[in-house]
Amino acid sequence: MQPRINGQKYPSRPRRTIVTGGAGFIGSHVCDSLLLRGDQVICVDNLFSGSLRNIRPLLNHPHFSFLEHDVSEPLDIEGGVDRIYNLACPASPRHYQRAPIGTMRTCVIGTMNMLELARRKSARLLQASTSEVYGDPEVHPQPESYVGHVNAIGPRACYDEGKRAAETLIFDYQRLYGLEVKIARIFNTYGPRMLENDGRVVSNFIVQALRGEPVTVYGKGTQTRSFCFVDDLVRGLELLMESPASFTGPCNLGNPHEITIEAIAREVLASTRSTSPLRFEPLPEDDPKRRKPVIEIARRSLGWRPTVTLKDGLKATIAYFLLHNTAPELAMAPRRAPPRRPSGRGRLSLASQR
Predict the structure, then answer these.
(1) CA distance readout (Å), 245 to 126, 219, 295, 301
(2) How many CB atoms lie within 10 A of CB 199?
(3) How far is CA 304 from CA 38, 181, 187, 202, in A?
(4) What residues in the chain have per-residue pLDDT under 70?
């Protein structure tokens, strides 16, 4: 009998799957899940924003291998390949803005290299696109049919326009060569293995709260985001990859529960029992004012919807940061006394609130 994962049938022989960006936050969770279902996984990462810490428990797994490689350079893999999850690209403003040309190369040349590999191997490719293709949206919430409102010359354009160009390449390869492709437009995702200094909302709020530092909110805090826990997202990515070949997407994957930046900051303060104050600073250029996915296509075509509540997701994420990054006594400090800042730790600032 064929095994089933998330209701999907998988072949009895192990699939050989490449995960680019596999040492990153989302990519490492994808590697975990694929190994659990029995795939042979080749993790490819140049470690620009990924970390060996995320995949260290997998390094001795008989079906896992790691290749340090930049996807903007051609990649040749011996033997057959069945699936390619193309997750390679720094996804936080702090990282992609310090290497804008490299980010664009990863989005465009890197995607083309993975498409060429998929073409040579007759493999199916899933592209991790992003809600940033919608830019600072004039349509709310955002359906896949919305073409976006992006500043092509702004500080975020290397990522936003790079991902849009990657989507163009994906569909051109599909039309010209009949390649089996999938595009996931990923909305704000959080969970264990986020970097503490990546400039994202949840991780920075948690770290600042645990350290007793002011929690930095840009603008008036009325801008909104929709946060999806990483386990829900990975399940959606697998369902999309294994959906019928005729279903290509783009497909929004995100949690439609919309919340303001100020509200998520206060939720983090409550969950960590921190007495840190909020500090309001000017809104960065091109920072989206509202963000919420329409997920009807994912519901209808994949049978997918997020199930992890924000409260439970924050609990798991805070536990991760307590274990790996921040002195645990800070989170447990009583509300009547502000926690003491550890020596040698500077203030974190946010590049943007994604």
Answers:
(1) 11, 43, 20, 12
(2) 21
(3) 22, 19, 14, 23
(4) 1-12, 325-354
What pLDDT, in 10s, does the model give residues 277-326? 999 999 888 788 999 999 999 999 999 999 999 999 999 999 999 998 65
Number of C-beta neighbours around residue 353 at 10 A: 26
Reduced to 3 states (helix: H, G, I; strand: E, B; else coil), residue 71 is: coil
| Closest CA relative to residue 173, chosen from 220, 120, 103, 105 | 120
**The residue type at 342:** P
159 as an active site residue: the answer is yes
- Amino acid sitting at position 195: L
Helix (H, G, I), strand (E, B) or coil at 333: coil
Q: In the numeric block, which tokens belong to residue 302?
A: 């994949």
Residue of 85, 134, 159, 190 marked active site: 159
Amino acid identity, residue 226? Answer: S
Say what the pTM is: 0.88
Token representation of residue 307:
């199930």
Backbone torsion region of residue 141, taken as left when φ is above 0, otherwise alpha when ψ lies between -120 and 50, otherwise beta: beta
pLDDT tens digits, one per residue of 120-167 = 999 999 999 999 999 999 999 999 999 999 999 999 999 999 999 999
Contact 33, 43 (CB under 8 A): no
Q: HSE of 184 in the Cβ direction (CA atoms, 13 Å)?
A: 28
**Cβ-Cβ contacts under 8 Å for 224 (sequence gap 6 or more):** 258, 259, 260, 261, 289, 290, 291, 292
H or E, element range at 316: helix 310-324
Q: Are 26 and 87 in contact (CB under 8 A)?
A: yes
